[in-house]
Design brief:
single chain, 282 residues, mainly beta, 16 strands, 36% strand, globular
């Protein structure tokens, strides 16, 4: 009951990338024939907030003048907007941290994540972006800087997370990596300038944790459905810098740099799945 199609070329449409999801038992998870969790949100119903008021499914932080709102149209979209104040921050994360990457025996569960996002403008002061999984932040906490890639190049020194980021000083370059609060670890850039993001153009960013893969390719990252050549290995997962066994949720965040500039960062959809059994036949 896995996704039964697969493309090998760049895949930039609205659909989930088959290179990531072809082996995910989505139907089995949806019909509870597999033990695990599958989440998908197309943002066809959303929120419009000017303060740090949580919704049933999402928490968020919004600086004064910022907004998170549902975009009108046929396909659901959510927009994160700033009024242009320097160092403005807007982020949104799930209310529950349900996903966990662990190398502990009996807890090595495969995981899939992907999101389709865009940045309105790309200049040296306009927003950084983080998209991926991270530990949950307290409602209304100004912890957004910990999610963001600012001019120093660091994403986090206070948050356990794994995913993709665009720095304000790198404009169109997409990096990916991870960080952990364990031992005061800072962000590890696994691959810098892995891809290029184009202003006001959607791009799909995702990764897959595969415990049946070779140990040198344990976590694979994808940009528009294309597998990247730098991987998280078993050795890296075992190190203190990796967010091993941390409970995480889906997170998107944006923050301006030192200059004042308005921005609109949009997310079309995001999805994440994890199986808790490895012996059931699909």
């Amino acid at each position: 009951m896995s996704v039964n199609y697969k493309k090998t070329s760049t895949d930039s449409d609205r659909l989930i990338s088959s290179a990531i999801w072809a082996d995910c038992p989505i139907i089995g998870l949806q019909t509870h024939q597999r033990d695990g969790l599958y989440k998908y949100d197309d943002f066809d119903a959303g929120m419009m907030e000017a303060s740090s008021v949580p919704t049933t499914r999402y928490d968020h932080y919004i600086d004064t003048g910022g907004t998170i709102l549902q975009v009108a149209g046929v396909n659901g979209q959510m927009a994160l907007l700033s009024d242009g104040t320097a160092a403005d921050a807007v982020y949104m994360n799930e209310t529950a941290a349900n996903f966990n990457i662990s190398d502990t025996a009996g807890a090595k569960f495969n995981l899939w994540f992907e999101a389709r996002v865009k940045i309105s403008v790309l200049t040296a002061t306009v927003p950084s972006l983080f998209i991926g999984l991270a530990e949950k932040i307290a409602v209304g906490s100004e912890a957004t800087a910990s999610y963001q890639a600012v001019t120093t190049g660091a994403v986090t020194d206070a948050i356990s997370a794994i995913g993709f980021n665009v720095k304000t000083d790198a404009t169109s370059e997409i990096d990916y990596g991870y960080g952990s609060t364990t031992g005061g670890q800072v962000w590890t850039v696994l691959k810098a300038a892995a891809g290029t993001i184009v202003a006001d153009t959607y791009i799909k960013l995702g990764f897959k944790v595969d415990w049946e893969a070779t140990p040198s390719q344990r976590i694979k990252f994808y940009i528009n459905g294309v597998e990247q050549s730098t991987y998280v290995t078993d050795t890296l997962i075992e190190a203190a810098a990796f967010p091993d066994a941390e409970d995480m949720c889906m997170v998107i965040g944006a923050k301006t740099g030192a200059g004042a500039a308005t921005f609109t960062n949009s997310i079309d959809w995001w999805t994440c799945a994890q199986v808790y059994d490895r012996n059931t036949i699909d």
